[in-house]
Amino acid sequence: MTTIAQAIRLALHVGEERHGVTDIFGEDVGAPLGGVFTCTQGLKTAWNSPLDERGIIGTAIGLALAGQKPVAEIQFSDYAYNTIDLLKLAGAMHWSSAGDWNCPLIVMTPTGAGIRGSLYHSHSFDATATHLPGWRVVIPSNPRDAYGLMLSAIREPNPVLFMVPKALMRYRGEEGEDIPGAPDQKTLDELINKPVTGDMSQWAARWPETPDLFIPFGEARTVREGRDVTVVTYSRHVVIAREACAELAREGVDVELIDLRSLAPYDWAAIAKSVKKTHRVVFVNEELDVTNFGEHLIRRVVSELFYELYAPPRLVAGAMVPGVGLSDNLERASVPQRDDLVRAIRETAKHQP
Amino acid sequence: MTHNETDGTNAELPAELLVRMHELMVKGRVLEERLITMWRQGDGYFWIGGPGEEAFNVPLGMLVHKGQGVAYDYLHLHYRSSGTLLAMGADPVDSLRQMKNTARDPYSGGRNFVGHYSVRKWNVVPISSPIEVQFSMAPGTALAQKRHGGRGISIVQGGDAGTAEADFYAGLLWSSRKGAELPVLMIVTNNQWGISTAYDGQHPATTRIADMGKAFGMPTAVIDGNDPEVAYRELSKAMEYVRRERKPYLIEAMVSRLRGHSSATGAAFVKSETDCLALFEEKLAARGIITREGADAMRTSFTAELLEASKRVIAEPQPDSSTIWDHVYATKNLVGER
Question: Does A86 sit within 8 Å of B136, measured CB to CB?
């Protein structure tokens, strides 16, 4: 079983070897560290940049315009905020030039809470990301999707924001969520994980053969089928929601769980189909609950599916406070926990036509 | 002209080059005047441009190694670069189209302000209104050029006020990392103003902007950007260095702002500023290279030509409202084309 960090590493390796990736760069992305989450260990085009987020995004834009295929990392999405006008410019490049230029860069950034990261390693970025027209925005919740979405990002002619739930970096996924044909866990660890002790100056990854797997943008995945309530989520809350679903199943509440995977474009057809089936919907994410992407989806549900609804659509999201506090009590009160999901889904399920 | 025609010495520039330079400067000036008139007459919402910078921007455009892709120069310009584009061969009528935001505006399809050029076939990266962002992008194109080999360079230009932005320092640093120096020609056209804010009081007391380059180990020059012969020689010298050494160079060119910041400040002619075109014409007339009458006739003829063109442009259709949805996403990798 592959971890999400390994899946990204494997996808980037395939990208370098077969799909034209020229530069994988950012703070601590190259040797010796290979990324603070090890996502870029052993990659031949990985290099360390100055500690300058604006320079990272600006240089990635320049590389993309010059026909290269850069993957730039912002070490934590919390630090993407000071690049916002550059992100806007990248998203506007094709439109502002009336179709003359395109800007095919990938920005990869770990996002969200769940690792006790305190104020500046816990932010989410999805509300801001989905306000950047011209960008593709994806956020996988398991190794297979991380691998397949990254490979699609590499072939994409538009800028792609590839967010990674940092709490799931070492998550190996459930059955069916691994890269097809990936070696077993022990073998893979030996092949591509750089040992943490000893003289590693001569270390090199031994890459296994992994397939071209392109997961299309804008295609949600139904993680669990159910008849009573639809839960639409993404990122690490797919894992949390799955636990909530199991608990509710014991109470007789049958939940349909959808992992959006891609926020721009997003799979409205999948959401609409499920809501028409269950007539109840809960949106879940850990971004601040004001001006939240889930609010947009609720607006569409209310506008387009009002007469299908048996219950008011709900949003379970983060508290509108300046940061995620470090103490366990503070983090748990700031971003949705399993019990919050269980309560919201249970309440929603009670509504009858 | 090709990129290696002078070696940057003080040798006299050939008369035909001076005549060509003068003609382009006149064209540039007349174009800006036509654009301002269009704004005054309500044929355009906003004007911004580069009258007063022709003596620098025209030689720059003449010296560009023009083409598409990493073998050629990339241009990361700003909204005062009309002289450079004209010298590269841009049609002034297309600027009128952008001024009037017509559907045929080739730079933005009626979306952006005048002077916001975008020409992929000449590596002119879309010019944007945010100040100085181009300085953080230029190292990216330059890195691709260094990797490719050859003599292509990345040229990035902004004003003096913009050097206060962090992106200016990003450009300096990312172009000059030890062992990873990049072929970037950095240009600051210093007109001593940022909209209404004077240069003095916003910059260090005892150093020049060009001196910033010294801290990053790159050659620098402060030049008289009002003299096209100086600009041509100094740009030739700097470009030759960047092309050959594959390392950065910073030029600070002192220029004039003849019509204020933009239409927002009225666009009236500022008499106290040095007029590079008038100065150059006196010089060329004194040397017998042009005559006053000849220069006036040329100006009158361009003026009439652009007046007629503007009448046609004004009658062109505006972009259809449905076009807002065009080009939000690219369907193919245009920049990957060879």
Answer: yes
